[in-house]
Amino acid sequence: MPRSPAGITGKNFKSLRYPLWTQNKARLIQAYLQLFEYITHHGTYIDGFAAPQEADLPDMWAAKLVLEMKPKWFRDFWLCDLKPGGIEALKMLQTEHASSKRRVNVLPGDFNEKVYEILNSGQITERKATFALLDQRTFECEWRTVEALSRHKSTGNKIELFYFFATGWVDRSLAAVSRADTKSKVDRWWGRADWHELLGMDGTARAQMVARRFEEELGFKKAVAYPIHSDKRGGRVMYHMIHATDHPEAFSLMVRAYRKISGRPDIEITEQQLDLEDLLHEIQAEEGDNS
User: Fold this and answer.
1) FRET partner for 174 with CA separation of 20 to 30 A, picked from 43, 120, 192, 224?
2) 281 phi and psi, to 5 degrees?
3) What pLDDT does residue 124 have?
């Protein structure tokens, strides 16, 4: 892995020793954004696949948790989903927050199309801190959508992305692709026709390769792959969350949020000096121990 680019440090952190498991991934987003809003004092949140993934587990619903953040400095919310049941849930959430000063926009439809409605709204300005959660199941988020989000701003920090890559079952899903329409869908998801090269790769190496695409192709100053495990004792890595950012404080805040949600104390007296490369090497070793 390359050393951290100038301006965004990766130091002052020990290894992420405790696994973060799937039921806590929404809480990770909430914890990170709650830390970040103390820097920006404002924010816009975009959620491309925003309906609750588990209807009976509201603590796993990122849109709900982000709207419940305090202080309530985030003002604009763009929540999209394709399924009618998901839209119904989002509209109920919108109604719940109707009395606040926040603008909660619910967009029914395919986020790969609706993203342009958001970007062309005039609300995502150069100086407005904007965060987009792309919590796809497998192949739902097309690469052109990621490109559109990353290239929307020309002078300010890019729209910060949380992109979920389905490490736990991507091999099985790719191996099952046979029909022409499914191949076309995967081509759009990966943005190229060489997705067959992903098959059989080591999960950590593959996630790091995806993260490098965010840096090298999309121009983010830093992109890091964080493992999300199957349960709180570790187990299989089900997702890698690619966190792509331009902000110099973002890496330290995400590590702090990851520690907090996974059960590790935020601050340790014996904290060592590690750069990003060392940190990722330790994460990879620990993933191997839990696989």
Assistant:
1) 224
2) -65, -40
3) 96
Percentage of the chain beyond pLDDT 90 is 71
CA distance 119 to 12: 36
If one counts every other C-beta atom within 10 angstroms of the C-beta of residue 169, the result is 14
Beta carbons of 195 and 186 less than 8 angstroms apart: yes
Q: Indicate the residue type of 18.
A: Y
* Contact status, residue 118 vs residue 132, Cβ threshold 8 Å: no
Which of 117, 121, 58, 116 has the alpha carbon at shortest distance from 92? 58
Assign 3-state DSSP to the chain and report helix, strand, coil percentages, each to 5: 40, 20, 40
| 3-state secondary structure labels for all residues of 123-142 | CCCCCCCEEEEECCCCCCCC
* pTM score, whole prediction: 0.86
Who contacts 205 (Cβ-Cβ below 8 Å, separation ≥6)? none
**One-letter identity of residue 276:** L
Burial 235-246, CB ≥16 within 10 A → b, else e:
eebbbbbbbbbb
Residue 39 pLDDT level (bands cut at 50, 70, 90)? very high
Select from 201, 66, 185 the least CA-distant residue to 135: 66
Residues 6+ apart with CB under 8 A from 282: 15, 16, 274
Nearest to 288 by CA among 232, 231, 243, 229: 229
